[in-house]
Amino acid sequence: MTSPRAATTGTATLAALLVAAVLSPAVPVAAADRPAASHEPTPTSLAPTPYMGWNTYFGLGAPTEKDVKSVADFLVSSGLKKSGYDIVWLDGGWQADTPRDAEGHLAANRERFPSGIPSLVDYLHRRGLKAGIYTDAGTYDGGKSCGLGSRGHYTEDARQFADWKVDAIKVDFLCGIAEKADPEPAFKEFSAAVRKTGRPMLLNLCNPLTDDWGVPHTPAQDAHNSYRFGPRLADSWRTGTDVAWGTPHENQWPNILRNMDANMAHPEAQTPGHYNDPDYLIPLRKLEDGTPELTTEESTTQLVMWALMGSPLVIGSDPRTLPQDMIDTLRNPEIIDVDQDPLAVQGVRVASDATGDVYSKVLQGAGHRAVALLNRSDKAARLTVDFADAGLTGPVRVRDLRARADRGVHDSSYTVEVPGHGTAFLKLDGKDTAPGTRLGVRSPADPAAVGDDVFSTTTSGTVVENGTSLGRPGDGRVTGRPVARANGKGRTEVYVRATDGHLYRRQITDGRAVGDWRRVSGPAVSSAPATAGTGTAPDTLAVRGEDGGLLVRSAAGDWQRLGTPDGLGLYDDPAAVTDADGHVHVAVRATDSAVWTRVRDTDGSWSPWASLGGATSASPALALDGDTVRLVSRAGDYTVWQRSLAAGQGDDAWSGWSKRTEFASAALAGTPSLTGTPLTATFRGVDGQLWQAPLPASD
After folding, report:
1. Most buried of 24, 196, 239, 677, CB within 10 angstroms?
2. Of 157, 235, 242, 625, which is the active-site residue?
3. Which has the closest alpha carbon to 220: 21, 28, 11, 5?
4. What pLDDT, on the 0 to 100 scale, is given for residue 566?
5. Are 58 and 316 contacting, i.e. CB atoms less than 8 angstroms apart?
6. What is the pLDDT averaged over residues 626-643?
7. Are 681 and 642 contacting, i.e. CB atoms less than 8 angstroms apart?
8. Do residues 355 and 296 share a domain?
9. Which of 315, 346, 377 is the last residue of a domain?
10. Within this chain, do residues 377 and 484 fall inside the same structural domain, yes or no?
11. In terms of domains, do 391 and 330 share one?
């Protein structure tokens, strides 16, 4: 392991693609990403928890009105709708053989849908179901590559779907692949057209192109890189190729693992309302001889792992053909509750051996985890979860979610026999743990620390220093975390961003607040600031501007726009530090999830952007540890990693990534505040409590 990552993919092909992923462009954004423990559904989310339903592709092929209505009625009568499977999604095949009429409007196939799509949508709505539909973002090529294409008609097609009162749209890219187009610009334009209609419609982006196709393509055209733009454009985005062939085939188990591993690559991209999509559930589809494509255990394992990942749960099989025990499994409320947990955190791998893996998902509330033990082998095996790997300490209560039965209270671990190609799915209730000392303070945002002083925030938007309120700026509230820097002679400068979008400063002298909050002269911004400086010199501030690019204010008070690295956007808050030679280092997390840096020389000139790599899930932290610059960041799997740069070394001399093994996955909720020599980390745990821990040099 040489860098922070979300999960080992298990295939050399995917590993190579993830290395290449840092090269493809994305468009700047202004919205901040959220750390795992701060996921909260937003009022504008069409699906604050992963959406659920049924899609026609794997079960019906080219659908008919009669069959779709029959399945819809079955969703209601079987209880699947009541369990949450409420979208009936038409895939390809609903359109006419010539997909547009003389006026250029999309037309349904009148033989298969004699009543038309609006009538079918009304039928579904009257049964409390939602209606989904399908198109392709490429240019229609007469049916060679896709059954219909919306390129050149994005506005008209989106409006037509809205007029039909459609609730969800799947936009494929088959014709886009055929014309060797890049998916991001096409999806961006289609997404804008959907928003312009004014009708709320879920949008699922489906670029299925991977190396599995054997088609030459660039990293920007690969499905594994959709995490770079999907969260900004849609409610979900495919993370790999199709999970199976359109018709049932033997030996599908490796493809289930392939899609699961691909979906595990970037859990940090997922937030409430925006989901990695590993494709549909395909339980017990029948081969020509009547035997199932997947066994009951394999089918259940797919459901369990999709729920553990917080993925959309869309049944692809024809549910009318499923036995009652599989219907009951799909309806298991304890499995569904894990998928629908409001934090929408994607579960990650926390342990692995030659037989299988252990995955952990943080659930809402203190001390709750969902854990899946996956047996990748063909034979039954005993697998163990060590509670410490899930960030818990005992005693821990264990519940079997598949059996819906309690399994007792255990101190440090739990072992269970798992069938080949199977899973054990557990809920653990214990006590959240992290390295160091719990401070007895809760905070909705990451803290700042200077010496013995800890600055935090409250849910009412005020700043608190060691339990004493510092109030809030004017009539506004603080958004995000505070930052602070000791400015010599007993003074500390505290900075925050307020709800008016501007930065404010307050001075603390000898432990006492001086004066009121004062607005920092300059433009409105979209993140909390970072501060750097030495001694009593004025602070340098780094912040993300409203345009999504990096803004830096010099010690002289001048603002400079430094843009974004290679056209990427910026997530979260910047970090900044002044090194022993007077150079100012700024680090950001970009939309490729990597850490990027720029350095200001003592003459005021800035270096070009340089990538430090990694797959990170929160803002980086920078600090000076003696003469060494240290960078600490939370990885995609919510573990903690670091790099260092020794004094006098060029910006290309950073050490490699090394893991901070004292932090279990999800022990750190966001970004630590680093102070002192040797460093001390003050941080927020997954339970919202503040902690302090020594962070001695380890590389």
Report:
1. 239
2. 242
3. 21
4. 84
5. yes
6. 96
7. no
8. no
9. 346
10. no
11. no
- Residues 533, 536, 539, 540, CA torsion sign: negative
Instruction: Say which of 91, 172, 318, 446 is annotated catalytic.
Output: 172
The sign one gets for the Cα dihedral 641, 647, 649, 650 is positive
The pair of structure tokens assigned to 371 is 């854990």
Distances (CA, A) of 594 to 8, 266, 367: 17, 11, 30
Question: Quick one: pLDDT at residue 697?
Answer: 86
Range in 180-189, 318-327, 534-543, 546-555 the model is least confident about: 534-543
In a domain, 525, yes or no: yes
pLDDT in tens, 290-321: 999 999 999 999 999 999 999 999 999 999 99
Provide, rounded to the nearest whole percent, the portion of the chain with pLDDT above 90.
Answer: 86
- For position 224, which CATH number holds? 3.20.20.70
Active site residue 182: no
- Judge whether 337 counts as a catalytic residue: no
- Among 305, 323, 346, give the residue marking a domain's end: 346
Structure tokens at 406: 């309690």
**Domain range spanning residue 362?**
349-432
| CATH code of 668's domain | 2.120.10.70
Token output for 142:
């007469």
| Residue with the two structure tokens 């952007």 | 609
Q: Which amino acid is residue 306, in one-letter code?
A: W
- Residue of 10, 9, 589, 592 whose CA lies nearest to 264: 9
Which of 194-224 are b and which e, b meaning 16 or more Cβ less than 10 Å from the residue's Cβ?
beebebebbbbbbbbbbbbeeeeeebbbbbb
Please name the residue ranges forming H helices in 331-456.
Answer: 333-339
Number of structural domains, the chain?
3
Element (H, E) at 58: helix 57-60
Per-residue pLDDT tens digits for 53-98: 999 999 999 999 999 999 999 999 999 999 999 999 999 999 999 9
Same domain, 176 and 213: yes
**Gyration radius from the chain CA atoms:** 26
Residue 234 shares a structural domain with residue 254: yes
- pLDDT class for 148, splitting at 50, 70, 90? very high
User: In this structure, how many other beta carbons lie within 10 angstroms of the beta carbon of residue 181?
Assistant: 18
